[in-house]
């Protein structure tokens, strides 16, 4: 039986860890060839070998997705290898420095914005010339933060980048509709990944602006735990496939109702 994404090619950023890794494995399992884009080559090498063991194809593209040259060049390498792009997952991101606005260095603000928001613009921009002829699906990883949730004090740069992705994604959905390119956003709540490695928090600084909020019975109404990357990967498969063919410019929350509290 033909697989759901048979013959399609995906460009996936942040594919070395967490949500990006789980999504790459899921799309590959469903027939897509996947280009794995990440800062950390050893991690995407590992994902590639997992994919190849299960009989699918993957390509390692080490790149910093906040660099225009590196993103453009990654697409060139992919085109050279497979000659087409159908699916794009603009997912790479960091939490960055978590601190009061007063203490946030402009360089730290810029780092979060360039890793999360500028990278999304670049990942979409450089895909367009290659997707125009055949159409396809672009999925952007935003967050509950910046869209529904503002209680994570100290995350002003992160939340700004995440609501920025929402505005950009909706503009892109409208602009790219004539090429049959769909653009959708996902808004995860807490998911068990390695993002804490890219979270720089100074607890003492935060104390001066913190607003105490308590959830005596936890803040995960549905499953009483954080989500798993594999659960997010199922959503990516749906948005990548023709099962979501009339959905564009939409956001989907995947948070077990955490953001409604
Ligand atoms: P993760 O740290 O496990 O994976 C992120 C990957 O992105 C890493 O492999 C990292 O090397 C890569 N990356 C970061 N900056 C990069 C850059 N400039 N160029 C290339 N690669 C880069 O984290 P994750 O939780 O899987 O994060 C994926 C996305 O999900 C992020 O956009 C994050 O903001 C979003 N998100 C995560 C959560 C959560 O709770 N984990 C919640 C909401 C949204």
Automatic annotation (TrEMBL):
It comes from the Bacteria. Belongs to the short-chain dehydrogenases/reductases (SDR) family. The gene is fabG_4. One of its GO terms (biological process) is bile acid metabolic process. NCBIfam families: PRK05653.2-4. Keywords: Oxidoreductase. This is 3-ketoacyl-ACP reductase. GO terms for molecular function: oxidoreductase activity.
